[in-house]
Amino acid sequence: MATVGSSSSTTGHDSEAKMKKITPIVVVSCIMAATGGLMFGYDIGAIGSVTSMPTFMEKFFPVIYTRTREQGMNTSNYCEYDNQGLQLFISSLYLAGSIATFFASYTTSRFGRRPSMLIAGVFFLVGTILDAAAQDLAMLIIGRLLLGCGVGFANQAVPLFISEIVPAGIRGGLNILFQLNVTIGILFAYLVNYGSNRIKGRWGWRLLLASACFPAGVFTLGATLVVETPNSLVQRGLLEEGKTVLRKVRGTDNIEPEFLELIEASRVAKQVKHPFRYLLKRRNRPQLVIAIALQIFQRFTGIQAIVFYALVLFSTLGFGNNAALYSTVVTGAINVFSTIVSMYSVDKVGRRMLLLEAGVQMFLCHVVIAIILSIRVKDQSDELQKSFIIIVVVMVCTFVSAFAWSWGPLGWLIPSEIFSLETRSAGQSVTVCTNLLFTVVMELAFLSMLCHLKIVPSKMGNHSNGFDPAAH
Fold this sequence. Notes:
Blueprint: H1 2-20, H2 24-50, H3 54-60, H4 62-71, H5 77-80, H6 84-111, H7 113-132, H8 137-165, H9 171-175, H10 177-196, H11 204-210, H12 213-225, H13 230-235, H14 239-250, H15 256-270, H16 275-279, H17 285-299, H18 303-316, H19 321-349, H20 351-374, H21 382-404, H22 407-418, H23 421-451
Helix pairs in contact: 2-8, 2-10, 2-12, 2-18, 3-4, 6-7, 6-8, 6-23, 7-8, 7-11, 7-12, 8-23, 10-11, 10-19, 17-22, 17-23, 18-19, 19-20, 19-21, 20-21, 22-23
């Protein structure tokens, strides 16, 4: 008995050390895998930027281009883009991704996390090439659908990969690497857009779309370099290989307790023949409800409207073209910085506290912005109107920072942690599908809703776009 007690104590001590230790192979693998978020973020930032380019709109959406040229100052920036065809084009990526994620679930479970990431990389590269070289709308949409398939595979596999390969004690911070790369991708797209807008001629939009080859290539290369997760190897019966990889990623030979846990979890997982049906069982419903609710609430915070249409939004507030471009870059930088804050705080402060604090912060920002934009400022000085604009921009940045250290990264982190091994791949597919479907809902509704708010042209006429930023 004394021997057993001593062994148990030693095991507990080693287990605690294991939970905190991180090896170089884990760091490299996580960084490489998380670049899948780089591609996802770049598309989010680029698609809103490219639709503001007249040469792009003239080639692929001549109806909108002609309307904006003819109506000029007689319509608001929002109503100029109130077109279901354009909104369907933008949302097609997310529709494709919401379907592809279920195929990704099968691939991830049957062949491993790494092959799913490789497939995503191929989709990203081919889709990017087709979009950058597009000669007509059909070619453009096909490329976007392929990008959507890449998003479905990457968003399904990457969070699972990171959550499985990282020690539990620091899992939260490293898992947020995926969301950090999303924010870096958005900022990168804003910076490329800033440069593309200074290119005269008709190929600025092609440069913006072609630049996606960089994050796509980095992710594909990274997927070839990472190791497969021990969970996946054990689940597929490759026990010796799984044990070898587990030793490498933990940096110790004393991996028996964790390895036995993986074998037991794999045994239970193999008994589940229909994981999606098993998700609906009573024991799995709390995790399923939490994962779905997180995605719905994340999308309904309104963040998608800001990152997609930041340029249009700032222009309508009264900024000139250069000032609007500067503002989007600043917003993107705040997004990146706040996500880094989340990486360092999530395992110390806790998931729940971050969600609650940021929820209150985002709510107050929405209230302030709504009050300012609902006040009609008549016969006021330019300085007063500019002060309102500054307050709104500050509130937008404050809102983005709150989202970036809470609902943004935690919306992906929490679902990847709460599902058991037997339902993990299926649960992640439901998570991704819900997120992308509600992104589609927001995309199809946002510009139409803003147009119907009846934004009134300014009588003062001294703003860059001819609109009173405080009108509603």
